[in-house]
Design goal:
This protein is an alpha/beta fold. The protein contains 11 helices and 12 strands. The protein has helices at about 15-30, 40-55, 65, 80-85, 105-115, 120-125, 145-180, 205-210, 220-235, 235-245, 300-315, and strands at about 1-10, 35-40, 75-80, 95-100, 130-135, 190-195, 255, 260-265, 265-270, 280-285, 285, 295. The strands form 3 sheets. Strands 1, 2, 3, 4, 5, 6, 7 and 8 form an 8-stranded mixed β-sheet that branches. Helix 7 (about 145-180) links the parallel strand 5 (about 130-135) and strand 6. The two termini are about 20 Å apart.
């Protein structure tokens, strides 16, 4: 089973991201799709269903649910090439086990400062081969005196420190393998960078940066890649630099070329009261139809693209062990 980490601080949209991803996973696994499975243990499913229920009523997750997100784990299963032919083979499935981590949380802060993996949460994080990094676009501003800019710089610094410690851990692991005369090879880590709250990117900012006013379509297009990398090179430069330079560490892991995704949940203003303009925005919900069940008005094509990307990574990872269908359960 390949471990994967979802990284973001409390304001990066991590809970909303996980809620929308969960919605996409359940929709995908209940369609006629024999090559994908999803499973969450009871304690994680309890949190996921509460996040989903809250969002499906048009509200964003409560703070108390956000505090429980670090307890959430779930597994995505993908049928292998062998499994498509021999469905009962023990190599029929490959799984990716996800967990979410709060970069501003006590455990991660302590690890960033000390470099010592003293808790199970951190040790679990350091075993990851896929790293999903959330970047909050609402903090991107040219006003260097604003609170948003300070929060972005602070988050970028924390994430860069975490990546540096992560690289050191993986490099030490590599050296220990060599010292034990075990087959050692430079590890490959797969980073996925998700731009959250993209609907809050000011047109004025994009104009001043010389970027198109809408994010280019086509996740793998050159235009999309350049758009995302340009934004990150202006507002997330420390982390981007560490990801690119990881190989320079002795035995440091090779970070595969980053995959870029966007996350957007469409909202509407509350109606029916005189205070509607001051009320918090509500999530727009599409009603059930002949085409499918009710669902949030979100960028589902991006979330589906993420699932497809994770599936390709699962096929590439050389250290996975095959699993039977019974070990990758379906919701």
């Amino acid at each position: 089973m390949c471990p994967a980490a979802i990284l973001g601080d409390r304001a990066a949209g991590k809970t909303t991201f996980v809620g929308a991803l969960y919605s996409t996973m359940t929709l995908t696994s209940t369609k006629t799709n024999e090559n994908f499975r999803f499973y969450a243990p009871p304690e994680s499913l309890d949190v996921l269903t509460r996040i989903h229920a809250k969002m499906m009523t048009g509200s964003f997750p409560d703070a108390n649910v956000k505090d429980e997100l670090n307890k959430v784990q779930f597994t995505l299963g993908f049928r292998t090439v062998i499994g498509k032919v021999l469905k009962k083979s023990r190599f029929a499935w490959r799984g990716i086990k996800f967990a979410a981590y709060d970069v501003s949380g006590e455990d991660v802060r302590e690890y960033i400062e000390s470099g010592v993996a003293s808790t199970d949460i951190i040790r679990q994080l350091l075993e990851s081969y896929i790293v999903v990094i959330l970047v909050d676009c609402s903090r991107m501003t040219l006003d260097h005196d604003s609170p948003q800019f300070r929060r972005m710089i602070g988050y970028d610094g924390q994430m860069a420190q975490l990546i540096s410690n992560f690289v050191k851990y993986k490099a030490t692991e590599f050296e220990e393998q060599k010292a034990a005369h075990r087959l050692a090879h430079r590890l490959k880590i797969f980073p996925a960078i998700v731009l959250t709250k993209t609907d809050q990117l000011p047109e004025s900012l994009l104009h001043k940066l010389g970027l198109p006013l809408t994010i280019p379509e086509g996740r793998k297009s050159k235009e999309r890649q350049q758009f995302c990398e340009f934004l990150l090179s202006r507002f997330f430069v420390q982390t981007l630099s560490l990801l690119r330079g990881a190989r320079l560490a002795d035995g440091g892991p090779s970070f595969d070329e980053a995959a870029y995704f966007t996350s957007q949940i469409k909202t509407r203003m509350a109606e029916g009261t005189e205070m509607a303009a001051a009320a918090p925005a509500r999530i727009s919900i599409k009603p059930a139809s002949a085409a499918g069940s009710a669902q949030m008005d979100a960028s589902y094509e991006e979330y589906q693209a993420m699932i497809d990307y994770f599936g390709k990574v699962a096929q590439q990872a050389s250290d996975f062990e095959g699993e039977s269908e019974q070990s990758v359960k379906r919701v």
